[in-house]
Structure formats: structure tokens, C-alpha cells
Specification:
Layout: E1 7-14, H1 20-30, H2 48-53, E2 60-68, E3 71-79, H3 87-94, E4 99-105, H4 112-123, E5 127-133, H5 142-153, E6 161-162, H6 171-181, E7 194-203, E8 207-216, E9 219-220, E10 224-227, E11 233-235, E12 238-242, E13 246-249, E14 251-252, E15 257-261, E16 275-278, E17 297-303, H7 309-322, E18 327-333, E19 337-344, H8 347-361, E20 365-367, E21 374-378, E22 385-387, E23 399-414, H9 418-427, E24 431-439, E25 442-450, H10 451-454, H11 458-465, E26 471-482, E27 484-491, E28 494-495, E29 501-504, H12 508-522, E30 530-536, E31 539-546, H13 562-581, H14 591-598
Parallel strand pairs: 1-3, 1-4, 4-5, 5-6
Antiparallel strand pairs: 2-3, 7-8, 7-16, 8-15, 9-14, 10-11, 10-16, 12-13, 12-15, 17-19, 17-20, 18-19, 21-22, 21-23, 23-25, 23-26, 24-25, 27-28, 27-29, 27-30, 30-31
Helix pairs in contact: 12-14
């Protein structure tokens, strides 16, 4: 068993694209954990999606061995995501370690997510090791970036390590610093075993596999383990470390991070944040776990084929095990059949989940327009109803008021883009609070803004306004009264429920026009004119029409008198008249049309 004073548990936190996964690659290479011939970029990013997009979506634990001054140390590293939508993964990682490497890109400096992740780490009282990355790039400004880091965490110049994750420069100095600065795990090697489940996933052959941090005691193969919250019991089939593949050991001791194969087939039995103990441990106090994460964005997820509903339900259950921030409940739509109303932390989270469902489980899905959840107060009632879908909004005559969530928004931007960023944020109903200056040429703009203005394409537009230099972070802090209405979309006089959205009443006309324009480009033309309308209540606020497709009935003619052509055209005209008399046609809306509206 590994001596407790030789264990170091740490994670890497940073903004998107500051080089976390590349630094993790170099650490694995320097410690000899992965052979040179097996080395590839982003070793710890196991999903194809992560590699294609160049982002980390899932936290990834790995164990390394490092020799310093003739002593061998065990280093447990957790690589974390950088995007704001996956901050729950970061907070779970931080609860399992004693130290954090705060990584900052020497070309870009401190960004919004750097600050957000730093505050999360300080809340957990972790040892922070400041590191500047990408010092090999010609535009790296090491002196200015060091000053920023020193001002941010109050450290000295010599505390900041400058590394290049690409070339491996100074990475060994970082490993030395981790051994010297990160405290060894506290905990007692006693009978009352307690381990924190910080991640898990489902394997068809092994059942539920849990990633745990052992706080007290030890877990061994063939132990009878018990989950304290769900009261599930099972025999431990295997324990071990991730190096990065599964490496089985006899025991997982105090302070260690590793995996436990539970063999459980019931996915609900082993939840993230639960405490794993032994059936023989008696009455012990459960670990604190994690605070419940609140979804920010809600969208309906439906299978394109009704028969796929049970496959979608199983897929959602499995992904919930692997993605603890996902919330969902069954929903039925007259237009789309049975599906789920799911809650996400943001639009990237929604996009990634949809892509994972399609790739990993082979499903074809329709996703409805996303919205935030509103508190709706009925007349004469003090208790709010939480409305997540536009279809659940009561009739306007019964509503006293509607409250929407507001967020505190921090935008870090170079000074020359402040004007453009401020104009854009105010267009999105942002309320300016103040400006703080980080260093020469960079500022933090602080705003309060409705969450509905942030969720869909705010980040993309912010990037284009600032030529890609600005970064943002937000957190919801309160609900405020808002003038919200439901916008219904009517195609060929049929209301399309999946396209109903919430909007501000003064923006209903613009929102309706925008959706109708998208639909006009997405719906295939028919033999009849298709009326497209947007309505609030019973009032039409925008309208358009898709002209009829004219079949070329004269194509088969190859000459002769003009009266033959006339005869065919008159016959077509009569047919069209008869079709009009029969009433409206039925329009099948393709799933791309839903997605195009979804993307604004």
C-alpha cells in the first residue's frame, strides 16, 4: 500500500484553450506514465467529440509516479474542462483534491473562466500553483502576464512557473512544485471506510463504474460496499487506478483516487456525490457531497421515430450517470409524441448532449427551441409556478406577473473593444454596473443581464464584436418581473407546438419575422401556397407565405399548336382550384427546420 505522505492529489484549472490537456500530456510523458510510442495529442480526452472540437467535456483522472530526491511519489491528476457550461465538472474535481494548478495562457492573460475557476478552488481552500503556459510563442508577454497573476492571487514573482506544455520546457519544475507545495491527503486508515463518488459511467459488461476519492479507510476487491444515500449494496468486482487505462490493484487506500467496478445494473444505485462505504462499517457520517446544480436552459428532446422513445429513455439514464448536471423529465407533445423536457447548464451543454445521444446511441432527434424557466404568479396566489416550456404558460387572463432569472455577467476584454462590447450588451438588455482594470490594456466589465439574453448566441456575437479577444462568465442571482408572452408559430393554419417560444412583448414582431424567415428557407415548397404566421394570444404579429410549386405540365410537348399547351395549363388551373376548395394542405416540417429556428 502506498504511504499516505507520498500521495499528491491535484487538478488543472484554466480558461478554454489555455492548454490544460496539452500540459496533462506532457506530465504523463515526463513521468513515463504513457509510452512515447503510444503518445498522442489530448491523451485524456477519450471522446471523439472532444478531439474534433479541441475542448475537454469530461473530467479525466489519471495516476502518475514521480521520483524526487530518491523518493517515489504517487501523483493523482484530474484534467478538467474550461467552458462555463461544464463548471460543475470542475467543482466536482476540486472536491476530490488538495491542490490546483492555475494555468494562464502567456499570450492571452487572465480570462473570465480563469477567475471563475480560481474562486471555486479558493472556496475549497486548495493550494494554488500559478503557471504561465505557451511561453514558446513569439507573442507571449511573460512579464505583463506575471504581474496579472501576482495581482490576482497575491503571490511573488518567483512563485509563478513559466512552462511550455508543447515543448515540455520547465514541466519538471512544475512536478517538483506539486510535490513540495500540495499537502498530502488527510484521512485515517480505519474500518469506517468513506469514499466520495465524483464521477461514474455505465459499461455494458462491468455495470456501473464509479470514480472515487477515498477519504478514510480502504476499498478492496470482494468487499461488500454500500452507497449511503441510495442504500444500494453490491460486491466490489475490481478496484484500481487509471493510468490512463484501467490498472487493477488489490486495494484503494486512504487518500487515493481510482475506480471501483460495482457490477450494478441499476443506474440509479450509484449517484455522483454519494458516499461509498462498506456494509460492515456501521453507523458513520456521510460526506458532504455536492450541492444540487440548477439547470439554466430547458429544451424538449424527442425521437424522430416514435418507436425510439424507450431507447432514448435508456440513453438519457446512461448519460445522466456520466453527466451529473443533466436533469430531465418525461414530456408529451401532440406534434412530436413522447420525449423529455431536459435542463442544461447552457447551449454548449445542450449541443454536446444532442451530439452524444446521436453518436453513442444511434438516435435521430428533434430538439425544441430552448428557453429559461420563469416563475409565473397566478392572480390571487403568492406561490409561483415554475414554467419551463412555452406550452405550460397559463392563459394571459389568469397571470398576475411573470418573473425571469437575471445573471451577474463579467466580461474581460481589451480596452479598445470596450465601446463595441458595451453597445452590444446594452442591446441585449444588460444593465451596466462598473469597470475594473486588470492590467494595462485589459478591463473587466460588470453587468446584470436577463438570462434569456445570454443563452442562445450571446457568446458567439461577443466574440465577433471583440475580434475573438473577449471572454465571459456569468452566474444567476435573482428573479425580476418581466413582460413575457408566448409566441405561437402557425404553418398552413396548423399551430406548430414545437416552435412556440417565450419572447418580450415589445420584441414579438421581430422574433416572429425572424422565425418565419428561417422557416421559409427550410420548408420545401408544396403544390399549394403555404401561409406562415406568428401569433401572440389570438393576434397575428407577423406573416409570410411560401408560394406554390408549379409543376411543368407542358414539359412533354414537343411541338404542335399552341392550343395544346393552353389545354394542359387550363387543366392544371382547374386542379389547383379543386385543391384550394378542399381546404388547406398538410405540411410535413423537416427536422432541419426545427434546428435552423433553434440556432436563430
Amino acid at each position: 500500500m502506498i504511504p499516505q505522505d507520498r500521495i499528491r492529489n491535484f487538478c488543472i484549472i484554466a480558461h478554454i484553450d489555455h492548454g490544460k490537456s496539452t500540459l496533462a500530456d506532457r506530465l504523463l510523458e515526463k513521468t513515463g506514465t504513457v509510452d512515447k510510442r503510444e503518445m498522442q495529442e489530448q491523451v485524456l480526452d477519450q471522446m471523439d467529440l472532444e478531439r474534433e472540437r479541441g475542448i475537454t467535456i469530461k473530467l479525466a483522472p489519471v495516476r502518475m509516479k514521480y521520483v524526487k530526491d530518491g523518493k517515489e511519489y504517487t501523483l493523482n491528476l484530474i484534467d478538467t474542462p474550461g467552458h462555463v457550461d461544464f463548471s460543475y465538472e470542475v467543482s466536482r474535481s476540486l472536491a476530490a483534491v488538495e491542490g490546483a494548478v492555475l494555468l494562464v495562457d502567456a499570450t492571452q492573460g487572465v480570462q473570465a473562466q480563469t477567475l471563475a475557476n480560481l474562486y471555486l478552488a479558493l472556496d475549497q481552500d486548495l493550494e494554488i500553483i500559478p503557471v504561465l503556459n505557451k511561453i514558446d510563442l513569439p507573442n507571449a508577454d511573460i512579464v505583463a502576464r506575471k504581474k496579472e497573476l501576482m495581482a490576482l492571487i497575491g503571490c511573488k514573482d518567483e512563485d509563478v512557473i513559466s512552462v511550455s506544455a508543447k515543448t515540455g520546457e520547465n514541466v519538471e519544475e512544475l512536478l517538483d512544485r506539486v510535490v513540495n507545495k500540495v499537502p498530502a491527503p488527510e484521512g485515517r486508515d480505519v474500518e469506517a471506510t468513506r469514499a466520495l463518488v465524483f464521477d461514474s459511467y455505465y459499461d455494458d459488461y462491468k455495470g456501473v463504474v464509479a470514480y472515487v476519492r477515498v477519504i478514510d479507510g480502504a476499498l478492496r476487491k470482494r468487499n461488500q460496499m454500500k452507497m449511503m444515500a441510495s442504500k444500494t449494496t453490491a460486491e466490489v468486482l475490481d478496484v484500481g487506478a487509471l493510468t490512463p487505462g484501467f490498472s487493477s490493484t488489490d486495494v484503494l487506500g486512504t487518500g487515493q483516487i481510482g475506480y471501483v467496478v460495482t457490477g450494478l445494473k441499476d443506474i440509479k444505485g450509484c449517484r455522483v456525490g454519494d458516499t461509498m462505504t462498506l456494509s460492515s462499517s456501521g453507523d458513520i457520517k456521510a460526506l458532504e457531497g455536492y450541492k444540487e446544480v440548477k439547470p439554466m436552459v430547458y429544451a424538449g428532446i424527442f425521437p424522430q421515430e416514435g418507436d425510439d422513445y424507450s431507447a432514448l429513455r435508456d440513453a438519457m439514464d446512461r448519460l445522466k450517470l456520466n453527466d451529473a448536471s443533466l436533469n430531465y423529465e418525461p414530456e408529451q407533445s401532440p406534434a412530436l409524441g413522447f420525449g423529455f423536457r431536459a435542463g442544461f447548464l447552457g447551449m454548449l451543454h445542450l449541443e454536446i448532449l444532442k451530439e452524444r445521444l446521436e453518436r453513442e446511441f444511434g438516435l435521430f432527434l428533434v430538439v425544441t427551441v430552448p428557453s429559461v424557466a420563469y416563475n409565473v404568479y397566478a392572480r390571487g396566489s403568492d406561490d409561483p409556478i415554475l414554467v419551463k416550456s412555452p406550452l405550460d404558460l397559463p392563459d394571459a387572463g389568469h397571470i398576475d406577473r411573470i418573473e425571469e432569472p437575471w445573471a451577474k455577467l463579467d466580461i474581460i476584454t481589451p480596452v479598445e473593444y470596450i465601446g463595441g462590447v458595451m453597445t452590444f450588451t446594452q442591446e441585449r438588455h444588460g444593465v451596466y454596473k462598473n469597470t475594473e482594470y486588470l492590467s494595462e490594456g485589459r478591463a473587466i466589465l460588470k453587468y446584470e443581464i436577463p438570462l434569456s439574453s445570454l443563452i442562445v448566441d450571446f457568446y458567439d456575437k461577443l466574440k465577433s464584436t471583440s475580434s475573438g479577444f473577449a471572454s465571459m462568465n456569468y452566474e444567476v442571482f435573482e428573479y425580476r418581473t418581466a413582460d413575457i408572452v408566448r409566441l405561437d408559430i402557425v404553418v398552413a393554419e396548423d399551430p406548430i407546438e414545437a416552435l412556440a417560444t417565450f419572447t418580450y412583448s415589445d420584441e414579438a414582431h421581430q422574433a416572429g419575422k425572424r422565425i418565419l424567415k428561417t422557416l421559409k428557407e427550410s420548408i420545401p415548397r408544396q403544390q399549394f401556397v403555404i401561409k406562415l404566421q406568428a401569433a401572440v394570444g389570438g393576434k397575428i404579429v407577423a406573416g409570410d407565405r411560401l408560394s406554390a410549386l408549379r409543376k411543368d405540365v407542358t414539359a412533354k410537348l414537343y411541338g404542335g399548336d399552341v392550343s395544346r399547351k393552353r389545354k394542359l395549363l387550363d387543366k392544371q388551373k382547374k386542379g389547383k382550384k379543386r385543391m384550394m376548395a378542399m381546404g388547406k394542405g398538410k405540411v410535413q416540417i423537416p427536422s432541419e427546420a426545427y434546428l435552423n429556428v433553434l440556432k436563430r
